[in-house]
Structures are given as structure tokens and as C-alpha cells.
Amino acid sequence: MRAGPSQEEIRRQNLGALLRYVHVRGPTSRAALTAHLGLNRSTIGALTADLTAAGLVSEGLPQDQSGRAGRPSLVVRPEAEVYVFALVIEVDRLVAARIGLGGAVLDRREARRPRGVRDPADVVAPLADFVREMQRAASPSARYVGSGAAVSAMVRAEDGLVRLGPQFGWIDEPLGEALAKVLSDEVQGGDRAVPVRNNADLSALAEHVRGVAVDTDNIVYVTGDAGIGGGIIAGGRLVSGHGGYGGEVGHMVVNPNGKPCNCGSRGCWETEIGEYALLHAAGRDADSGTGRAAVETLVDAAGRGDAQAQAAIRQVGDWLGFGVANLVNIFNPEMVIFGGNLREVYIAAAAQVRSRLNRNGLPACREHVRLRTPALGDDAALLGAAELAFGPLLADPLEAAADNP
Amino acid sequence: MSATPLLELRRLNKSFGPVQVLRDVDFAAYPGEVTALIGDNGAGKSTLVKCIGGIYPIDSGDYLFEGNPVTVHGPRDAAAHGVEIVYQDLALCDNLDIVQNMFLGRERKHGIVLDETSMEQLAAETLAGLSVRTVKSVRQLVSSLSGGQRQTVAIAKAVLWNSKLVVLDEPTAALGVAQTAQVLELVRRLADAGLGVVIISHNMNDVFAVADRIAAMYLGRMAAQVRASDVTHQQVVELITAGRSGDLGIRDGDAAAAPVRTVKEL
């Protein structure tokens, strides 16, 4: 049995806490860091000196010095030259971005992706092009520290193996391996594993770290495109489950006699509130378009008085509230966030969603739940992938920085 | 949530000549919450808002701000307490730009000249603080803005003055779907930032999308003030149209003054 953490471990912990603080909250004065981290002034000074030496933060005078007496406290800023690549693979789009420490998107590329079954190589190749272009455009002094990827599929956390991606027709595709190869080909010093997670999980994480759910430790994030994804944060931690597949709220069965789902089951939540269900209920056939635009057009038509569109939105809103009530009863979240096209559906059908939640949710579980739309919009998964990529650096700043000179 | 209401009205009465428009109205708005004020046409919503804003003097009743009784004789008194009202017509001047509108009548001066730089900076900061990204330049004329952008400017103008309570009269009435969503998200952000917000709306969806509390008026009386997490769409519609729903609303016993009609009668 050990007596306690060693001095070295405590230092590592403190370095990580300080770097994480300025990464998440932005430039902060030493005085404020002292107050927020509960460390004394000389410790903050020493930690800052170490991080500055490692090129992870810089210090300077505050920009606005007016009206303050005395010597101003130095402001610690995250060094945005330190960057990661964040990759997003969704049903309708591929996104890649170069994101600096502190969360600023330094460069970004996006491509529309046609729906339907595709070879993984068709997804990886454009991402490789994006990474190459952005790497070329980066300044020579910029430092790469890792990558992370989000995909709307069920992913094994351990190695990024996509176990099931119904929207792509993937079963047991080694996506993590393929992306790791891209990074090691395109980026000097990029030969390491690329962590891959579910996009809704990473969206939940991003909204928790720098979005609408900051300081909120119990949240349920549901997002919709062709399918329905979910990310759950309980007690400040992402509920990933044993293998990384947790939070698949789209496949909770709500209607045993319902429509068949592309996961092989029947009556999944997705078959009642997904985009196809909404468009079908409104009598829109496949020819009248799919995707976000089709949902927006439908909501707009309902706003202008299209009765069939209104009825479809109410019906889907009721089902949305039904599932949310179940989730609220199970997780007792402080906040439920509606992302993707569920943002439009929620705003258009809030009365149905709320009413159903109030009817079916347990009063003690639902009394403080706040229903919200995302603050980060469609960039949540991208920023979440960046957080994933920054993970090792924030856990052990000096060690990780030494690996990436 | 917090126990002391930001604004509390007790047994408020207001008559115009022989017509009693508000009858013993109780109303409360809390910091960090959106309170939706709803009711049929002629239920007294606008009169109540004008009493809050100091446009109409009240006949009797208590006006408490942050728990202290105050007297409000005019809009300036209300503004001094931190109450700002955004009326439906927005009261923006088309021929002026965003900065000029936001500081209209309360311009900052540097000696005898206007301090344009600091006003421009503050206007831009306020819009950025509300995460408003749709407005390109704060020197744009208001006439060039869309309906949603105008609403945003009017709301930003209300927030600029360190206000504590912002009252919005039908902010989404004339907007399209996409702009309605943006304005509703803005309303939500105001409350999440700690302000008290009162929103008048006829749209049940808008009410449920943003409100923490719902205050339903019926024929000049407050039928019920309930939490949005406790009621259904159906109940709220009944409160508006009949003044009561199950255990909620105006009781039969004291309904003599204003006859309660059932949904069937209507």
C-alpha cells in the first residue's frame, strides 16, 4: 500500500490543472489562477514558468490596464501555436480542422458527403487531403500534439474500430487504424494512435467544456441527422460504458410494434423521431430531399400553416418528449440538449415535448431539468474531437510536450 | 431557484374610467428565469406590462423590486430600478445606425462632443456578449436589418443599461421560423446569464421553448402562475380560455366578479 501521491504526481496534477484552466477559460491572470485553483502564489509562479519553458503558455501584461492601481497581475495565455487535428465523419458531411490550445479553430475544411453506403477509403481520402492542405498552410513554428476523430457510429474506444455504422454500411471497420495512417503519412511526428469516439458523445463533452452546459455536471445530449445519437455526462464524466458504446439512446425501444430500424431491431426511438420518420409523417417522399435542409423546409412550411407538416412535427415532438421523459427518469439530468436537426424540431414542438415530459417524467427527476439548444451549434463534435486530442497533453503537460518538440 | 423575486406585484388594480382592466393581480418574476405572460386578447397583459414599465400609474397594490416596496411614477423610475421594456414596435429609428439607436437619448459625451468610440465599442461588446453574430457592422443603418436582427438590436439596447429585468412584448410575432429560433435562443441566454426576463407571447410553442414559469391571465385577473415543468399544453390552453384547469386557476367561489366560462360555452 502506498502512503499517498508522490511529489512528482502532485506537480503533474497541478500542471495539468493549470493548463486545462487556461485552455478552457481563456487567458487568466496569475491572481485569478491562485484563487480558482486553490494554490499559493509561488506555486502558480513555478508551474507557469515550467509550462512557459515547455512552450505551452505565454505570459504578458493585461491588455486593459485602465483604472487599476498597483502592479498588474501577469496574464497567462494558452499558446495557440500548439495544435491538434480534429476530424468529424457524419452522415452528410466530413469536417477537418486545425485547432489550437485554447480551443480556437485555426483552419477548417468541410465537404458534403452523399448519403448511402460507402467504402471507408472514400471517407478517409478527402480527410487526408484536408490534413495535408492545412498542414502545409500552418506556420513552421506551430507544434502538432495529436489528433482526435468523431464519427456517427458505434466505436470501440480501445482502438477506434467501428463496430456498427448503419448510415455508412460499416461493420467492424478499422477506422482508427486508417486515420492513424493518414496522420503518420501527412504530419511529421504524427505516428501514433488517433482516438475515435461517437460524435454525440464528443458533442456532449464539448458543450460541457465550453458550451451551454459549462458547470453543469449531469447532462443528456441528443442529436439527430439520419439517425439519433446520444451523449450522456453523469457526475461530470462521460458515460461511455464498458467498450465505449454507451449512450445509444436512438436505439432504445419505445414502440415494440413500430417500424423496423436499420439496426435490425423494431420500434427504436430513431424510427419515431429520426429525420426519415419526420419527413415520412409529413408525406414528403425521398425525392423532395433529405438532410438538414429538408427538415428546415418542413419546419418552415409548418410555420406558414401547412397542416400536414404541423401534424408531423407535433407527432414527432410527442415522441421526442416520450424518450426524453425516459432519459430524465433514468439519469436525472440538470439539462437536456437538442442538437443537429432536433434543435429545429424541439423549438417547433416545444409544447409537445414539454407536455409529454411533464406527463411521463417523475416529478422529482424532472423538476429542475432545463431543456436547451446547443451553444456551439454544429461545431460541437469538432470541438469535442479536439478535446479528445488534447487529452494526453492536459493529463501530463511536460511529458506530452517533450514527445512533440 | 432563488427565493426572492426580482419583481413582485401584489393585488394590483388598474381602471380606465369605469372599466376595471386589472383586478387584484399578483405577479412575480425571478432572476435567471424566463416568465411567460400569456392570455387572450384583452386579458390585460399589455396593461400589466405598462404598469411594470411605469407608463400607467397603478390605482392600488404593491410594487416590490428585489423585495423592497418601490414607487414607480414613470418610465425613468422603472429604468432606474433596472427594468427595461422592449415593445412590439421596437421603437427603433430606421434612419439611425445600430450604435445611435442603442444609445438614443442616453448618449455618452466626451466634453461637449459625443464619445463615438466608446459607444461603438460598448455596443459591439454587448452584441458579442449575447453571441449575436448575424449583425455585420454596428454602423449599419437599422433600416437595412431583417426583422430578427432588429429584434436583436432592441433586446441588446435593453440589456446595455445594466438592466436586471427585461420585458419583451411578443418578440417573435412578426418573424420567420429561423429567426424565431434565434430570438428564442437569445431570450434563453439572457436568463441563463442571470437576468430576469418576462416574455409576452401568443405562441404556445415559444412559451414552452423558453419559459421557466408561466403566468396566465384571464379577463383582467391572474388565473395562475405555474412552473413550466408542472403543466401540460392542454392545461395552459384551458387557463387562457377558461381561467381554470382542474385544481389550477380561478376558483368558482370568487368568480362572481368575473364570470368563468367553460371551454364548452366558448
Describe this structure in words.
- Chain A: It holds the Pfam family ROK.
- Chain A: InterPro entries: ATPase_NBD, ROK, WH-like_DNA-bd_sf, WH_DNA-bd_sf.
- Chain A: This is Sugar kinase.
- The complex is a heterodimer of chains A (405) and B (266).
- Chain A is an alpha/beta fold and 405 residues long.
- Chain A folds into three domains: 7-61 and 72-78, Winged helix-like DNA-binding domain superfamily/Winged helix DNA-binding domain (Arc Repressor Mutant, subunit A, Orthogonal Bundle), CATH 1.10.10.10; 82-200 and 381-403, Nucleotidyltransferase, domain 5 (2-Layer Sandwich); 213-374, Nucleotidyltransferase, domain 5.
- Helices cover 43% and strands 20% of the residues of chain A.
- Chain A is built from 15 helices and 16 strands.
- Chain A has helices at 7-25, 30-37, 41-53, 120-137, 175-186, 199-210, 270-273, 275-281, 291-303, 307-331, 342-348, 350-360, 363-366, 380-395, 397-403; strands at residues 28-29, 57-60, 75-78, 82-89, 93-100, 105-112, 143-151, 154-156, 161-165, 170-174, 196-198, 219-224, 228-234, 237-238, 335-340, 370-372.
- In chain A, α1 (7-25) packs across α3 (41-53) and α6 (199-210) crosses α14.
- The model of chain A has no long low-confidence stretch (mean pLDDT 90).
- Chain B has 266 residues and is an alpha/beta fold.
- Chain B has two domains: 1-82 and 164-266, P-loop containing nucleotide triphosphate hydrolases (Rossmann fold); 93-162, no CATH class.
- In chain B, strands 6-9-10-3-11-12 form a six-stranded mixed beta sheet, with helices on both faces.
- The longest helix of chain B has 16 residues, at 177-192.
- Chain B is globular and about 60 Å long.
- Chain B starts with 6 loop residues before the first strand and ends in a 17-residue tail after the last strand.
